[in-house]
Amino acid sequence: RWVKFEEKVEDGGERWSAPHVPALPLQSLFQLRTCLQKGTMLLDLDAPSFKEIIDKALSGQPEEAELQTELRERLAALLLRQPRHQPTKSPLRLLAELGLSPCRGRHGARPRLLHPECPAAASLSFQLRNRFKKKVPPGAEAAHVAVGEVEFLEKPFTAFIRLRRGVALGSLAEVALPSRFLFILLGPRAEVKAYHEVGRAMATLLTDELFQRVARQAEHREDLIAGMEAFLDELTVLPPRKWDPSARIPPPSCLLSPHRRTAMHPPDRQSHGNGDTAAAGDRAGLGHPCSREELERTGRLFGGLLRDIRRKAPWYGSDFSDALHPQCLSAVLYIYLATVTNAITFGGMLGDATANMQGVLESFLGTAFAGSIFCLFSGQPLTILSSTGPVLVFERLLFSFSQDHSLDYLEFRLWIGLWVAFFGMVLVATEASHLVRYFTRFTEEGFCALISLIFIYDSLKKMLSLADAFPINWQYRLDNVTSYSCVCNLWARGWGGPEVSVRDPSSPPALSPQPAAAPAGLSRTQCLSRGGHLQGTSCQYVPDVTLVSFLLFGGTFLSCTALKRFRSSRYFPAGVRKLVSDFAIILAILGSCAIDATLGLETPKLLVPSELKPTNPARGWIVFPFGANPWWVCLVSAVPAVLVTILIFMDQQITAVILNRREYKLQKGAGFHLDLLCVSLLMVVTSATGLPWYVSATVISLAHMESLRKESATSAPGEHPEFLGIREQRLTGLAVFILTGVSVFMAPVLKVGSLAAGFGLFSKAG
């Protein structure tokens, strides 16, 4: 059978082989051409039943090759026999049915014709139960190729039939599909192998998209021959004894489109022009969106913004209803974990760079507020806002400058944010976003690679820093376990008390401390709080937390990657594979956290704030514009604001261009001007409240879109599922940011999560 590729019956007729590219003998194609030239050909035959089709085919022979009445009757009886289809059965089902079917018997070795004792209803029932129909693309039609040898024929009988309209021919097909083409080749004995190869050649031709067009539109025999000649023009011949003919070529991962094939091998002048047009359309579809309507200037103030609003308004309702799909739940959990990890990472870095003027709590609240507003009102709600590396570098430089010149950092930052918002409004009013059409693919890919490297570098840097806090115990020797001890020496600190030997709670169970002589049960924390110091060979012992953390880090990354590719695995039904692939991130995170909890080691956990108060007690939630800095600071702030505006414009718009590429097949359009307006207005609020500045995060946004990919539910054997586009909606991003804000109140739950697993997810997003 053929859908896109060839499958053969194997193992004594019990199962179908893996799909493969058919390899045809060149002679079989020449013989097929001869059959088409000399055999019966009926085009646009109007017949409602298979019996009538056979009758017209047998009576439509040329006068010089007309069959005798007896031969016609015998051929009709042979062709009208019920077919026996090859089912795909599990081994258990084969064992259960072994010896029970009356249709097996003497026909077991050649399962092609149904035993007379089996009624036709059995084949029709098989059609209804056959799961193979799920693999057939919607709108498909069946073509039947019948070849074989018979004793009563002296010369071959050939017929090619095209029906005027698709007709259901009962149990003739393996699945219930309308039939359009039939090819029959019957001949005398001793040529069965040649007949079989000719039939394979005909079936291969009928699966070729270009030949299908010719076969559907052909008006004469010569048109069909010309279509076959065009097929032969594209043929590649392998020399004999240079390869193994029994080797099966696996289906390729990517096929050349029919438009490009037409352009490369035009059958005639007219089709050449159509092929060029189609190929140009393909190139335009895959190229840079330079001619997109979103990037055309209107010549009016805020003209581009108004056009973005008019474009997105009709889709606003569907932006919520389209999210009612299980895949969106998986995307929410995935992006939520990535966003929380990102907020913790950048929040900690901001705290280090700004003396906790901005910390993890501010990062959580700012992410939740800015992201929610952006998802509700932006032009491209699939974008995920986040703090980015370039903004972090500017914050560090700005804080250092403020400290060196005795300026209030938050007030200075407020004025810069207000100027950035003003410049952003000017860019929106003048439709400056149309400049992104000059961003080349090299610029986009280079920028995306830079951000990805930042993500991966930050993850590895954080993981390597664990070796400082939890050093690996290279000096530990199991044979010396009896000599390890840890003593809390209070006498050395002037307390006048006796030395107390205590067991370090972080030491291994095998390290038994010396019996305590005085106050019993002093822990390491209690000892240090009383002014004592720890003395002994096991005082600095910590379990190999670093090694376990790296195992969790790598395990999360690899398991996430493997489970994401599980969709194309050979194991389990397609529905199970799709479910595992959709929830790959969640399964990987839960698995790593479960292993971490089972081991019971004190590995680093997610640092989630539990109180709603500023990280630095010296600041409040509102930043006042005057009072701490000289009056001229509000004017001077325009200079660094220009640099921040350029930085945010480039960061925001390059990300927007990447997300709105034509290859993602987005249907609801982009909103470059509207997105920039939202980011500019959010700068005012985040600056006035001392929250981090936010811009589109390229890597997390791309991960968000990848988690919402739509693929065809059915795909032919050997064919990869067709990419249908992205599930465009606002609800996943909105849910992610609401959960990020609620995470402040979920600290007891989130603190169980492994930080190493989070960084593994972080590097996977990169």
Which range best describes the helical content: under 10%, 10-25%, 25-40%, 40-55%, 55-70% or over 70%?
40-55%
Average pLDDT reading: 76
Taking all Cα atoms into account, the compactness measure Rg is 36 Å
Question: How is the largest sheet built, in terms of strand order?
Answer: 3-5-6-4
Written overview of the protein:
The structure is a single chain. By secondary structure, the protein is an alpha+beta fold. It has a 4-stranded mixed β-sheet, with helices on one face. Strands 9-8-10 form a 3-stranded antiparallel β-sheet. A hairpin with a 4-residue loop joins strand 1 (9-10) and strand 2 (15-16). Helix 9 packs across helix 10 (269-286). The two termini are 43 Å apart. The relative contact order is 0.13. Mean pLDDT is 76; it is low at 98-122, 267-291 and 492-518.
Compact overview of the structure:
Keywords: Cell membrane, Ion transport, Membrane, Transmembrane, Transmembrane helix, Transport. With 766 residues, the protein is of the alpha+beta class.
